[in-house]
Every structure is written in structure tokens, then in C-alpha cells.
Amino acid sequence: IRILAYESSCDETSTAVVKNGREVESLIVATQIKSHQRFGGVVPEVASRHHIEVISQITKEALDEAKVGWKDIDAIAVTYGPGLVGALLIGVSAAKAASMATGIPLIGVDHIMGHIMAAQLKDEIEYPALALQVSGGHTEIVLLKDPIHFEIIGDIRDDAAGEAYDKIGRVMGVKYPAGKTVDNWAHKGKDTFHFPRAMMEDNDYDFSFSGLKSAFINTCHHADQIHKKLNKYDLAASFQASVIDVLAHKTIRAIKQYRPKTFIMGGGVAANHGLRERMSKEIARLPKSIQPKVILPDIKLCGDNAAMIGAAAYNLYNAGKFSDLTLNADPSLELPYADSMLK
Ligand code: ATP
Ligand code: MG
Ligand code: FE
């Protein structure tokens, strides 16, 4: 089964050809980061315009790079939510047009299901699985009963992890998106500020990072007022230590309770070196009898890309979950997968 996939939910326009949900035959990512950087974040109208400029061209590129034609494609997959509505609509319209013109079946995919399934491109997921989904707009612990039935057991109450990285990065003068640079700086510093670890000892699996963000910003403002210069590496290390402590603590507790066969990380923040090392280390320390297999997706497949959408679409294909031409963008689409949207 060969799937052509589209992703355009935010500031990356991407197409890919994925074979059997596991093998990336081609992947094109047209990033718009430079256009948004001067505004310090994604400008929705600018995003839509960029998507529409490149989408036809990168459809052709994905097919060419995979050395296939339309006749070799079994399904056309597209992210239909969550994300920016104008951005999503470009991908959805392109996929629907291609499906209508070729008669190839259409599959609408949840963007977050896609992030989680990036792991499937690395190794076989055994179920039940548990995912730590950390991205620009989401921070969740998700149980996967099988490849298409998900349940969120922990969620973010305010700023998602990636959003928090971007906001504190901005205070330190780091260009959007700041996560990668803050991660690099963190490795050169020490946790000297001891920022709060919100909700760490609470009995649920929810997260909150806005208190941490405020503590960080207050520390910087206070230092400014008394003309004291703070060490940026220690600031980054302290922020990152707080984020990772909370994420790791709650995820390990969830693994002990739910005993998944596989542990997965997904989303842009899953590229974080500190978080990857910490999770691998803590899982290796669990008793052998409850140790899940760990799948950390390739760094380049953590951020938004169409290959992960192709992987998730393969699972929907096998379950017969196709969409029709009434498929519409749903900016606030939520896991578990909305079956009502599917035929
Ligand atoms: P969502 O997927 O929740 O809808 P999104 O698509 O905007 O949101 P992604 O593209 O998955 O989010 O991830 C982007 C986020 O990941 C940004 O906030 C970015 O700063 C963050 N990020 C990228 N690399 C790292 C890293 N190494 N450490 C921490 N954060 C990172
Ligand atoms: Mg992005
Ligand atoms: Fe994303």
C-alpha cells in the first residue's frame, strides 16, 4: 500500500510518499520559518499564502523523488486538524482535488495522531502503547489501545511545552522557534535557578507550564532592574530541567500504572536531547517486567512533516476509515479520533 500524504496545519508545507506505513519513499518539507521569524511567531495569513504557492510543486516533487506516478498511489492522506484553519484548508483542498481528479480514495488524518505515528516509521509499535506527545500546541500523555483508538490520560492546562520554550526563548532574544537553541544552551549550563515544578506531585497526569514561564520572566525582569547580567546557559538549563522533571516524572508514573508494551515520544519537543536522554535512562531503570520498548522518532520526523501523516493514514486505511469529498478542515479537532468524520 502506497500513500501520498499532505501536511499544511501550521508553517510547514509537506508532502510524502509512504509505503506500508513504515517506509518513507520521499519527503518534501517546504518551511516558512524565515517569513514568520520577524514577527516572532506564525502569522496565519502569511502561512496560508506560502502553502498555496508551493503545494502543487511539492506534490510533483514527492511523486518524482519516490519515482512513482498517480497510478501507483493507493490513497491520498491529508491533515484536516488541529491547526490554523486557513493553512489546513490548503492541504485539504489540494488532497480533495487530487482525489477527485484521479479517483484515488481520500483519508483525513488528525495531526496529533500523525505526530505519534512518526514512531511507526522507526520501528514496529506493539500495543497497548503509551505516548508522550509534546509539541508547539500540545502536551499530552496518550494511551494507544491499537493503531487507531487513542485515549488522552493527561493534558496541558495552559501553555504547551513547545509554546513555553518559544516564549522564554523570546525573552532571551532567541529567534522563533526557540526550542532547539534553548536545548543547546541548556547543555552548556546548570540548574542554578531552581524554577518551580508545577503539579509534579499531583495525582493526575496533567501539566502546567505557565507558572514556570512567569517565574522565568520575573527572574529576567528583576535582574534587568538591578542591572545584573544572568548566565543564559544556566537560565536555559534551569528552565529545561524543570520541564523535563515534570514530563519524566508523570510519564514514568503513567507507564507504571498502564504497563504499555511500547513507549513513544512524538511532536517537535520530542527532538529535545535532554528529554530523549532522560526518558531513555528512566525507562531503562524500571524493573524488566514492566519495561516497555522505547521508540524515539528520528529528530527530523519530530517536527511537522507529511511522512508521519502517511504512517497514520496507513493504519486508517487498514481499518477502512476513508473520508469523502465533504472532508473539511477542523482547527480544533481532538483525539481520540472523531469517528463521525469518517466513512
Ligand atoms: P502542534 O503539533 O501541537 O499542533 P506545532 O505543529 O506548531 O503544534 P511542532 O511543529 O510539532 O508544533 O513542534 C514545534 C515546537 O517544537 C516549537 O515550539 C519548537 O520550539 C519546539 N522544538 C523543536 N525542537 C526542540 C527542541 N530540541 N527542544 C525543545 N523544543 C523544541
Ligand atoms: Mg512547525
Ligand atoms: Fe505539529
Describe the secondary structure blueprint for this structure:
Elements: E1 2-7, E2 12-19, E3 23-31, H1 33-37, H2 44-65, E4 75-81, H3 85-102, E5 106-110, H4 111-117, E6 129-134, E7 139-146, E8 149-154, H5 161-171, H6 179-186, H7 210-225, H8 232-258, E9 262-266, H9 273-284, E10 293-295, H10 306-318
Parallel strand pairs: 1-4, 4-5, 6-9, 9-10
Antiparallel strand pairs: 1-2, 2-3, 6-7, 7-8
Helix pairs in contact: 2-3, 4-10, 5-7, 6-8, 8-9
The chain binds adenosine-5'-triphosphate, magnesium ion and fe (iii) ion.
Residues 111, 115, 135, 304 line the site of fe (iii) ion.
Care to describe what's here?
This protein has 10 helices and 10 strands. α2 (44-65) runs parallel beside α3, α5 runs parallel beside α7 and α8 (232-258) runs parallel beside α9 (273-284). The model has no long low-confidence stretch (mean pLDDT 95). It has 343 residues and is α/β, with parallel strands linked by helices. α3 (85-102) links the parallel β4 and β5. The protein has a 5-stranded mixed sheet with strand order 3-2-1-4-5, with helices on both faces. Strands 8-7-6-9-10 form a 5-stranded mixed sheet, with helices on both faces. It has helices at residues 33-37, 44-65, 85-102, 111-117, 161-171, 179-186, 210-225, 232-258, 273-284, 306-318; strands at residues 2-7, 12-19, 23-31, 75-81, 106-110, 129-134, 139-146, 149-154, 262-266, 293-295. It binds adenosine-5'-triphosphate (ATP), magnesium ion (MG) and fe (iii) ion. Fe (iii) ion binds at residues 111, 115, 135, 304. Adenosine-5'-triphosphate (ATP) binds next to α4, α5 and α6.
